[in-house]
Design goal:
This protein is elongated. It has a two-stranded antiparallel sheet with strand order 1-2. With about 100 residues, it is mainly α. About 0% of the residues are buried. The chain has helices at about 15-20, 25-30, 35-50, 55-75, and strands spanning about 5, 10.
Length: about 100
């Protein structure tokens, strides 16, 4: 299956994220071994991007939530928890009622 974003094919997970964000992932996360000067420049560029697109964090969060929701079992090996209804207590076996 091929994945296209904006007419470009994403051939890896990193490329998919980069195309979806419109920026390289490293801009937001940094890279191992970056100097203080490189980090300052990266953060400055990130601030400029956020100033130009203040809705970007909300858009990214929405996309991330949709991807997680659609792919949670495959991505995280999630098993749903069975929960009791709120406010209802059950007596433990052997406990006085």
């Amino acid at each position: 299956m091929r994945t296209y974003i904006g007419g470009q094919e994403a051939v890896s997970v990193d490329e998919f994220i980069e195309l979806a964000l419109g920026t390289p992932l490293e801009l937001w996360l940094g890279v191992e071994g970056e100097t203080a000067e490189e980090r300052a420049a990266r953060l400055d560029a990130a601030r400029d991007i956020l100033a130009e697109n203040p809705d970007l964090p909300d858009d990214v969060s929405r996309v991330a939530a949709q991807v997680i929701e659609a792919n949670a079992p495959e991505l995280f090996n999630v098993v749903p928890l069975m929960r009791r209804p709120f406010g209802r207590r059950t007596a433990r076996k052997g406990a006085a009622a």
